[in-house]
From TrEMBL:
Domain Acyl-CoA thioesterase-like C-terminal: 125-260
Domain Acyl-CoA thioesterase-like N-terminal HotDog: 28-107
Organism of provenance: Nonomuraea guangzhouensis
Listed InterPro entries: ACOT8-like_C, Sec_Metab_Biosynth-Assoc, TesB_ACOT8-like_N
Protein name: Thioesterase family protein
Coiled-coil residues: none
Length: 263
């Protein structure tokens, strides 16, 4: 079991309740990363499901959970021959923090009938850049859990030269050697700096709603994350992220609505 597996494990209490312990290693300046929190919820849902994989997840972030004990409460809505539908709530101190609807199914290792190609060709990993290590007082523990190599134009905001477009692109893998799986993908699709940074905004950009789809089981190796936005307006922005595996297959799609960062 890797550190990430331990940090996301869910322990069954009864048929509708799982105990979890939210790990302080996945903090971004105070709040816990949303993708990490979804991975925790998905562990519980898949354990209770007759199917193996979370193929569709839609979540509303009501509050910002803090590291420590919490519970996942699940309600089985329907189970058919090919998919099951579950409502799951992350609860901390008796208060609902995240509400989610999750569809589980079992994906096979099959050749796609049709597959698109990435809309952007990434430079080679050796031509990409890492973000500077955060200062200890910044409470950015998430960075230590991942290794990311960024397409240089998308991190111009670091030096006060944002591209002016909502975009973020990087190669991703866990810092501890681990082949990507659906739970790693849940983290990966929410691991990029908010695309609004490249549009010229900064600060914590809280997610309000996030939906992601698992499209295929990823091959070992680097994931390629391509993030973009369509509209930044009136204090809101959207973010779309595609995850491609080392074999060039689209393995996850994510879309979220978030608030523009507050310094």
């Amino acid at each position: 079991m890797t550190k990430f597996d331990e940090a996301t494990q869910a322990i069954r209490v009864d048929e509708s309740t799982y105990d979890v312990c939210l790990d302080p290693g996945y903090v971004i300046g105070g709040p816990l990363n949303g993708g990490y929190l979804l991975a925790v919820i998905l562990r519980a849902v898949v354990d209770a499901s007759p199917f193996e994989h979370p193929v569709s997840t839609s979540a509303q972030f009501l509050k910002s959970p803090v590291p420590g004990p919490a519970r996942v409460r699940i309600e089985q809505l329907k189970a058919g021959r090919t998919a099951a539908f579950t409502r799951a709530t992350l609860v901390q101190d008796g208060v609902a923090q995240i509400e989610s609807l999750i569809t589980t199914a079992t994906l096979g290792d099959v050749e796609p009938m049709y597959t698109d190609k990435p809309g952007y060709v990434m430079p080679r990993p050796e031509d990409c850049a890492k973000l500077p290590d955060p200062r200890p007082e910044s409470n950015m523990t998430l960075n230590a859990q991942m290794e990311m190599l960024f397409d240089p134009p998308t991190i111009g905001w670091l030096t006060g030269e944002p591209s002016g477009r909502p975009e973020s692109r990087a190669y991703f893998r866990m810092a501890e050697p681990q082949d990507p799986d659906p739970y790693v993908l849940a983290l990966a699709v929410d691991s990029l700096p908010p695309v609004v940074f490249s549009a010229g905004a900064r600060g914590w950009a809280p997610t309000v709603d996030l939906t992601w789809h698992l499209r295929a089981l990823p091959a070992p190796g680097w994931l390629t994350l391509i993030g973009s936005g369509r509209l930044v307006s009136d204090g809101w922005f959207d973010e779309e992220v595609e995850a491609w595996d080392s074999q060039g297959r689209l393995v996850a799609q994510c879309r979220q609505l978030a608030r523009v960062g507050r310094r």
